[in-house]
Structures are given as C-alpha cells and as structure tokens.
C-alpha cells in the first residue's frame, strides 16, 4: 500500500525571527510572509526602546507576486505597550518606503546563513552523534544553502585534523545512495575548527570573527550545541552570549542533560542560563523525544478513533515504561556514579514519554500547547514514595565461560559505591483520566536484553464468555498494546483469536506493524530530528523550564531519602532480568511485567 505522502525533507525557510517563515494565500494570491524584527528594531523603533524589548517586536510584511508590499494592520509587540491609533495601527508604524526596504532586505534566502558551532567538538557525543547527524541532514538536503559548521574545544587542532576526525564517523546510512563520497567531501569543506577555553571571552570573540568571515555579510543565524560537562555550561553560555551571538539574526543554544541533580541545582542552572539567554533561546535536549516511535505517540492516539476512547482508567489497567541495556558502564562509571539510573534515565527519558502518553488533547500542535499539557500531567502526579521504589546494582557473573564484571569493578567507580544501576518505580497521576492507574517504570544496565518500550495493558473483559478457555490466569486474555521504541521499532497489538480447526481453541496473536518491513526508508537518528527542529525554531520536542521544575519536584524527595538513608541496592547478576524486588513491586499493584512473559 502506498504511503499517504512522501517528502525527502521538511519544507522550511530561514528568517530573522525564531519561527521560520512560510508561504500562504492572501486574498486569493500567493505571497511570501517576511519576518525581519532585527531590521525594524534598528531602523524603525524609537531609540529609547532597549534592545531587550526590541527583539520581541514581530513585524510581518506581505510581498505580493508583482513585488508590491502590503502594509500590515498591526505591529505586534510582546513587552512594551504602544498607543494604538484608529484601524489598529500603532504610532510607531514605519512608512511604506521603509517597508519596501525591509522587504528587499530579507526576501532573498541567499542573504541569510546558519552557523552551527559544536562546543566540545573533540568529545564522544560530538564525534558519534552530532557531526554524523549534521551530515545526514546535509545529505538529505535539509540544511540551508548557506551554512557553516565550527568545532570548538580546548584541544589544539587544525581544520584538516577536525575534518579527518569527523570523516571517520560519517556514513551514507541512507540507502547507500550514489555520490556518497562527493557529498562527504562537500560537507567536510563546510567544517572548521577553533581552539579555545570555555570561559574565555577573548577566545569566543575570535570565534565570532571567524564566523563573520564565513557568513560573508549575510544575515547570520547561529546555533550553539553545548556538548560539554554541566559544570561549565554557564561559562560557555556567558561567553557565547557576550562575544559570539548574532547581532542581526537569531541565536539559539542547545543544552544537553543532565539539567542538575535535584530541584535546587536545576533551578540554579536555569536561573544562571537566563542571565544570558531568554527562555525561547534555550533548547534543552532529551534525545529520546526525537525517537520515531515517541514522536508517533500523539499521531497514534489522536489520529486513530479506536484508541482515544480507550485511553483512560476505564479501559487501561496499567502502563509500563521499560528501558534496559545489555551492557554496563564500560569506563563511564565516573560520570554515571554521580547521577545513577534514576537521574540518568527515569527522571528525564521515561518521565517525558509518560507525560506525552498521558497528556490531554492539546489545543493545537503548537509547541507551547503541547508543552502546557505535559506540564499539567507532571503537576498532577502523586509524590513518589520510597516504598514505591526498588533499586539494584549489577554484580559479577560468569556465563558461557565469560566473566562479566560487577559495577564496582569498573576502575572509574568508587569502591563500595551504592549508586543504583537499576530502578523500578510505581507512579500515579491524580486526575480524572488516570486516577488509580499504576504507571510502572523500570530502567537498568547490564540486563538480559536491550530494549525501550511502552506497554499498555488493558482491563479484563467483564463477564467474558471465554474465561473458561483461559483457565485461572485471566492475564493471558488481556489485550496489550506494545510500542517498541528501540531496537526494531514496532507497534504490536495483542488480541485473542480462535485457532483454525473444528474445535474451540483460543490463541493470543499479534497485530504487528514492524517499521523495517512496512517502510523501506531508514529511520532517522533522534539527533537529526532534534537538530533540524532547533535550526527551524521548533520547540515541541525540547523541555521547557517549568516542565523541568515539575519533573525534579517529583523525584527529588525520594532521591534525597535514598542517599540520606544509604539504601543498599539489591544485587543482581550481570545479564539477568534484574532484581527480584521489581516483581514484588509490580505484584503489589496486581501487575505483571510484560517484558518478562513467556512470549518474550
């Protein structure tokens, strides 16, 4: 069956405003809407208006097909009130000639450019994820015509050495199409390097000078990706804002997790970031929100009539969010030991997925409408209690003649560490839709399988005519929806079915949508989607500060209690299914972990 539609990349354009411009219809004619707040701020607004206020003025100009300019009825400003005149005009509306000048200033996309700076370019994340994602976007034609990529780090390196380092991680993963080598060469020619300290205004000013050379007088839009440890975020942001931000286009900063260790440290980080940036310039990235099946959650629920009526306590018995890795810390124990599995996975990845899953229907697909509904879910959640949490830590285990090390055998982990490598928790949303439904989370390292999935177990059929065919274990007859995020992305719906034959024998069958079988196109990496969103100013999959506050408010009390009481984790063998305590936790709420069934 053919797909409903197919596109190589999203249609997009680049403007001076945070949101990209678009084409639409005006009185039956095609026109292009132009946004040029920075130009108007310099040419039109009164001198007494500060730059902080000016940058929030959004002036829209409509350019007709014949080149004429349609003057807008209003000049919209977000902060400082202006006196309105008759017809909705403001006293500061410029002349028609100034509109024409401004329109010609931004009408040509050749006059704008995007500069992407990877701060911490010599690190593993940059090499393994960020640069390959940028190349994939370039290969697919998703980057603008004029763009430049700069690596910035303390390591001494030339442009050629950066290109050599980056080239080792680039692949034409997309169908192995033609011109792969040629595309790589073209991409690498756009990559440059500047060495400097993360807290040096002078070094960032030198970077700014280099960026301007490559921008060639065009309207400069700048994206900074902070692929650095959180303890130097603020220094880098200060230098970026003071010495290397764009003077005429937009400036955005992507911040990697962890966003603090608890409510206090997260609030302090947010406060420090907002000394130098506005909230709409900060893109807090959680790469799990860029996973294909996570983004498909709202499509599955809100565009299919069969699911939305079932999406409540009336029909859903429990929801399970499961994350497991089949490897340990492997030399990253120093970082991991400072955070643990709850902070590393549950408080962000799994909780964000839960909020998307459980939210009410948003007013629109606008980023703020979606994030508003997510915040409502987080604020409705019952405070997490210690008795609803199980923690574990993997031990050494020998299997097939191979000995796998314990967590504390990692040379980077402090001896005697009690940091959990496994955690399970039962959470509840105290609202009308989800009251009483347990949301069970489970995350761990060194388990028997690598997986990330959402399992929705529906209630038993009341007065079922076929209970006798399932015996005493009615869970065998429970319908279950499984959304497998990774690996082997898929959506499974488990149903009861009659086995063909003369007798009445029932079987549990799967209605399966396996993405690899259904869609020939390879699924993009999450970083590709999120980088493109950041370039386009799409904030839907990034975390807002109040979301972050609500998430930390839920987990901080139990994290402090675990540390203050020195709770000893339950030990489990490397490569096992995790600690037994997780099963007792689930059983307390009459739940059986779906990933441990015989079928799995």
From TrEMBL:
Originating species: Populus trichocarpa (Western balsam poplar)
Pathway as given in its UniProt record: Carbohydrate degradation; pentose phosphate pathway; D-ribulose 5-phosphate from D-glucose 6-phosphate (oxidative stage): step 1/3
**Is the Protein biosynthesis keyword given for this protein?**
no
- What GO annotations for molecular function exist for this entry? glucose-6-phosphate dehydrogenase activity; NADP binding
Q: Which UniProt keywords apply?
A: Carbohydrate metabolism, Glucose metabolism, NADP, Oxidoreductase
GO terms of biological process kind? glucose metabolic process; pentose-phosphate shunt, oxidative branch
Q: What is the protein name for this chain?
A: Glucose-6-phosphate 1-dehydrogenase
Family to which this protein belongs: Belongs to the glucose-6-phosphate dehydrogenase family.
Q: What range(s) does the Glucose-6-phosphate dehydrogenase NAD-binding domain occupy?
A: 118-296
Functional note: Catalyzes the rate-limiting step of the oxidative pentose-phosphate pathway, which represents a route for the dissimilation of carbohydrates besides glycolysis.
Q: Does the keyword NADP apply?
A: yes
Enzyme Commission designation = 1.1.1.49
As its record notes, the protein acts as a catalyst of:
D-glucose 6-phosphate + NADP(+) = 6-phospho-D-glucono-1,5-lactone + NADPH + H(+)
The cross-references to Pfam families, in alphabetical order and at most eight, read: G6PD_C, G6PD_N
Q: Where is the Glucose-6-phosphate dehydrogenase C-terminal domain?
A: 299-593
Q: What is the lineage of its organism?
A: Eukaryota, Viridiplantae, Streptophyta, Embryophyta, Tracheophyta
Report the top EC class in one word: oxidoreductase
């Amino acid at each position: 069956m053919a797909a409903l539609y197919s596109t190589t990349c999203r249609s997009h354009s680049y403007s001076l405003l945070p949101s990209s411009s678009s084409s639409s219809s005006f009185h039956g004619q095609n026109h292009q809407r132009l946004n040029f707040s920075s130009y108007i701020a310099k040419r039109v607004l009164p001198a007494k208006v500060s730059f902080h206020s000016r940058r929030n003025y959004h002036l829209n100009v409509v350019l007709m097909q014949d080149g004429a300019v349609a003057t807008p009825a209003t000049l919209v400003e977000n902060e400082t009130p202006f006196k309105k005149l008759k017809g909705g005009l403001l006293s500061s509306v410029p002349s028609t000639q100034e509109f024409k000048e401004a329109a010609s200033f931004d009408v040509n996309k050749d006059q704008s450019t995007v500069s992407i700076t990877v701060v911490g370019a010599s690190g593993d994340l940059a090499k393994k994820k960020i640069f390959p994602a940028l190349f994939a976007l370039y290969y697919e034609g998703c980057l603008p015509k004029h763009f430049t990529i700069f690596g910035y780090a303390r390591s001494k390196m030339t442009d050629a050495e950066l290109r050599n380092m980056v080239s080792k991680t680039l692949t034409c993963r997309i169908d192995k199409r033609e011109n792969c080598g040629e595309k790589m060469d073209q991409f690498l020619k756009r990559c440059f390097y500047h060495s400097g300290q993360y807290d040096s205004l002078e070094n960032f000013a030198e970077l700014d000078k280099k960026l301007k050379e490559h921008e060639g007088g065009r309207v400069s839009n700048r994206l900074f990706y902070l692929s650095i440890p959180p303890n130097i975020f603020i220094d880098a942001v200060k230098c970026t804002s003071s010495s290397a931000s764009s003077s005429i286009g937009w400036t955005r900063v992507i911040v990697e997790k962890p966003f603090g260790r608890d409510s206090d440290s997260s609030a302090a980080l947010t406060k420090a970031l907002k000394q130098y940036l506005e909230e709409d310039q900060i893109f807090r990235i959680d790469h799990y929100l860029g996973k294909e099946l996570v983004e498909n959650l709202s499509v599955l629920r809100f565009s299919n009539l069969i699911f939305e009526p079932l999406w409540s306590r009336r029909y859903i018995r429990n929801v399970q969010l499961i994350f497991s890795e089949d490897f340990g810390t492997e030399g990253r124990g120093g970082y991991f030991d400072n955070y643990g599995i709850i902070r590393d996975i549950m408080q962000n990845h799994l909780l964000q997925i839960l909020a998307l899953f459980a939210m009410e229907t948003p007013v629109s697909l606008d980023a703020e409408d979606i994030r508003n509904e997510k915040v409502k879910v987080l604020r409705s959640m019952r405070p997490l209690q210690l008795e609803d949490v199980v923690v574990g830590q993997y031990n050494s285990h020998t299997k097939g003649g191979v000995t796998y090390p314990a967590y504390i055998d990692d040379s980077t982990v402090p001896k005697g560490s009690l940091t959990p490598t496994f955690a399970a928790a039962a959470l509840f949303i105290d609202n009308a839709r989800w009251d009483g439904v347990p949301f069970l989370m489970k995350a761990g390292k060194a388990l028997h399988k690598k997986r990330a999935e959402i399992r929705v177990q529906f209630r038993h059929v009341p007065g079922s005519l076929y209970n006798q065919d399932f015996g005493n274990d009615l869970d065998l007859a429970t319908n279950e929806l499984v959304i497998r995020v990774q690996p082997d992305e898929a959506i499974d719906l488990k149903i009861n079915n009659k086995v063909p034959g003369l007798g009445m024998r029932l079987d549990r069958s799967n209605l399966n949508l396996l993405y690899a079988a259904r869609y020939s196109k390879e699924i993009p990496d999450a970083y590709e989607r999120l980088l493109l969103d950041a370039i386009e100013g799409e904030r839907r999959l990034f975390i807002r500060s109040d979301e972050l506050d609500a998430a930390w408010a839920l987990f901080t009390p139990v994290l402090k209690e675990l540390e203050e009481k020195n709770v000893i984790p339950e030990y489990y063998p490397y490569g096992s299914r995790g600690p037994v305590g997780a099963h007792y936790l689930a059983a307390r709420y009459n739940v059986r972990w779906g990933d441990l069934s015989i079928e799995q």
